[in-house]
# Entry
Amino acid sequence: MTASGVSDDSHQNGHHQGAAGNGRAHHPVSGGPIVQLPTAFGDFITQAWTDLVTGAEHLAVSSPNAPKGGIAPLVRLHSECLTGDVFGSYRCDCGEQLAYALELINEFGGTLLYLRGQEGRGIGLANKIKAYALQEAGFDTVEANEQLGLPVDARCYKAAAQILAEMGLHEIRLLSNNPDKKNRLAKAGVKVVEMVPTEVPSRDQNIRYLQTKKDRMEHRLTLDTHIVTVPSGAADDFDHDQN
# Structure
């Protein structure tokens, strides 16, 4: 085991086809070399993994430090979100959750699995933008997917569960507001001993989206902290008044 609680087996190149911790059916994945990853959030180690069924490439970003007190490591399963993670879109809270999770993992130890190929809860980038258009026409995030004839959530976590198993992470504290992730990981043999919320402040641009996730998708959100958008002109006036 490494300091972060990751099994030494995950350092080996090649195919990994071991079963998850409780002996349930495995999902074949292949892990690459581990390298250093210095970031704005701290110094991490990272390893690419390939899903040998779908060909999707995922990334494990781990703290080199073990969790304090021998507690289970923090783990974040972060679905790829180009608009939120790269462009900082306020239509969702993905980018801010990503940053918050990396801050926590850097401080307390653990791993973030960046799951590619899960854009728009698994419907793909082009379909996500189509769903955005429907949301602008008045549909919520659930209704928009349904209008497109697509699942509300098409993501699969079998590869993620297998990667965690290969890394020796059989008991984790899950960084998520989504109880469905906990349930799916449990079915795949990963024990979630605690769910650690990753709620970030809502914004004018995403409050309806987050309210829908809370009301219709059972996400554990309080929505008690909100950032009000100040129009650029008003901000200029405010700055002028303070001079």
